[in-house]
Amino acid sequence: MINKNLVFLLPILVLLLNQVHVNAVAQDYVPRNIDIERSPKNILVGSYVGGRSHLKPMLDVATILIERGHNVILLTAGKYEPSSEYPGLKQITLGPKMTVKQVKMDIYKDFDYRTMVPFMEFTTAAYNVTYEKFKNAAKENNIDLFICDVLANKPCIDVANNLNKPVVGFTLSMQMMDPKPYNSDPMYGCNISLENESIFERFRCALIQPLKIAYAYGPLMCKLNDIRDQMNIKSVSGTVPKVSLALIDTFFGFELPQSLAPNVQEIGPVLSEEYPPLTPEFSDFINGHKRVLYVAFGTNFYASIENNNKILQSLVEAINNKMVDGVVWALSQTSKDDFSPTLSFTDGTQFAPQFAVLNHTNTKLFFSHGGAESTHESLYTGTPMLVLPFGGDQMGNAQKLIKSAGIALSINKNSLDVKDILNKIDFLLKDEHIKKNSKRMKYLARINSNRKYRAADLIEYMLYSSGLNEYLDDDFLKEWIPAESRMGFIKANNLDIYGVLLIIIPALIGIAFKLIKYTTSNSLSNRKKSKQA
Ligand SMILES: *[C@@H]1O[C@H](CO)[C@@H](O)[C@H](O)[C@H]1NC(C)=O
Ligand SMILES: *[C@@H]1O[C@H](CO)[C@@H](O)[C@H](O)[C@H]1NC(C)=O
Ligand SMILES: *[C@@H]1O[C@H](CO)[C@@H](O)[C@H](O)[C@H]1NC(C)=O
Ligand SMILES: *[C@@H]1O[C@H](CO)[C@@H](O)[C@H](O)[C@H]1NC(C)=O
């Protein structure tokens, strides 16, 4: 029956659809008009730590805002030299740039939250001075919106909140802005995922480690709150920094999947539109070799002399064993003094155009420290990685590259072994899964690299919805704030309902028992009665 009807109706439907189509074609279409009314606004980009890895992604988004007519001011330690890449960017300095050495962090040791304590002490002591600098810059330049690097940058976020201006938190760390109970990070002494860990490990990571971290940072937080009280600064408490919008320079695929609140957006990998090309010398070298291994450990980190010698030995053997036919080692912090004096080594003062090297089809493997920028560039160019993490986010990045992205293997700086390095290089160059995943990640990183424009769109939306002062009350951006933040933990998770259930169920069981007792004793007494009768 139904089939018959359908057959009957179909021609009519087709006829109708054709009709619609013909009508549509007959008319001229007019554009939808996606223009947005714009007026120039003043934006402050602030980072306490500064440095390329923190500034570059923020400035790549800021560039889009500058192109759209806004004024952007960068406030950071030192002078950011590559800022010449960003025409139209005004720069104010927070003072001299600090270095890893200056803060007395021992980067040869295992690097986790404890290593960061001296650094946090340093930034807390400078809070008052930094706060004033941010406040003065904001007032002098009539700042409408703040984009604050989240790491060790409380003055930036506090000034914004105290001036009642919207603040965008910018970070590479999902765990910092939207922690989930089933995720962690080697920085906190645990694996990135607790999904398959034992209940003991989960107990340690969910309870013991946070307590240890609170113990390590508690006195500093108290000190900071004292300073805030003295300076009459409203402190905004919470487990994550209080920002209107969090932009996270990462992407699912590299990052472990999780749910996100609407005001937390993953927008990475943020990459520049243009990169410096290969110098003629590099170009000749890489064109002349079919399987090139590229080695670079970033600008802030360096290996011990012993490790450098092991790495060098591995590279020489990788060439001798014909795994690769060329090696480019970009030395920045590493100088020839970092190798044992018995080796002669030419100093690498020359700048390595990293993206262009990775972008070349002959570059088959990247031996890296696993810094965020290097990681993003490697994923984007589909280059597998051998990761030697030194500290900070690098251990977590290494785990994500291995487990989530599936394009890497890692080695441990405390137990470097030449044979192990060679086996891993061999595996990474040959394995089919690594090849497949590199291709997959290359695609994903490319489509996601467009999201820096979405980041700029969201920032502009905040500028225009906050331009009117009446929006700057409790309702500001309420379209992005899920109810759970207002309901509190217990109500948002229905814990009160489960609590009520916990009371109801024993009560019901109690009543049921009483009823059974009553009926059985009744029937017993009935039987007795009937017996007696
Ligand atoms: C900032 O605080 C430190 C102590 O934490 C103090 O020594 C210094 O004088 C303060 N600076 C200003 C400008 O208030
Ligand atoms: C993390 O996972 C690895 C295996 O992937 C395991 O060997 C290790 O014990 C786990 N825990 C920590 C704290 O690293
Ligand atoms: C945990 O184990 C399950 C089942 O073996 C697997 O599908 C999942 O990917 C694992 N998760 C992680 C984070 O390794
Ligand atoms: C990357 O490679 C593509 C072709 O493979 C080329 O068109 C592009 O210019 C390269 N970019 C850089 C920065 O090397």
From TrEMBL:
The chain crosses the membrane at residues 497-516. InterPro entries: UDP-glycosyltransferase, UDP_glucos_trans, UDP_glycos_trans_CS. CDD domains: GT1_Gtf-like (cd03784). This is Uncharacterized protein. Belongs to the UDP-glycosyltransferase family. PROSITE patterns: UDPGT. Residues 1-24 form the signal peptide. Keywords: Glycosyltransferase, Membrane, Signal, Transferase, Transmembrane, Transmembrane helix. Pfam families: UDPGT. GO terms for molecular function: UDP-glycosyltransferase activity.
